[in-house]
Amino acid sequence: MNEMRVRLEAREPRSGEIRAFWFSLPVNEDELEEKLGIDSADGYFIVDKELPFADEVMEDTSIQKLNEMAYQYEALPADIREDYGELMCYFTSLDELFRLKNDIIHYADCRNMTAVAEKVLSQNPAYASLPESVVRYFDFEAYGQYLDDNGRFVETDHGIYELP
């Protein structure tokens, strides 16, 4: 999704006309007041939205909250934004995902848990110090299954994520 935007409509008609316009996020409050012809921050409601986090936006969500959500979404790493829809099955809100974004590990080049096991162990100094004669007998598939059974992993088209 390229542009995040919402369609806002004035609660009260102006000159007998209902005024509604699309606004890109973050919404400039001065522009909102000018286009809709309203004086107060609660003189509008949201009638349509094109947002990755649309499920969290209600018709009475404030402009401040919309702008905060847009900031949080844009501050997510690009890979998490790319898989946002799939990851949100494991989080209660954009706010929670935003708070935990640094605790999520993305194994972008891994397509299964065996590959994740190999990646995890390749970064482990204790494993790296084992002689090759021992390493060749290591069962990465079993270790991958162990990781899967004892962690929270999500497979996507762009790799595997380990969730906190």
TrEMBL record:
InterPro entries: ArdA, ArdA_dom2, ArdA_dom3. It holds the Pfam family ArdA. This is Conjugal transfer protein. Coiled coil: none annotated. It comes from Massilimicrobiota timonensis.
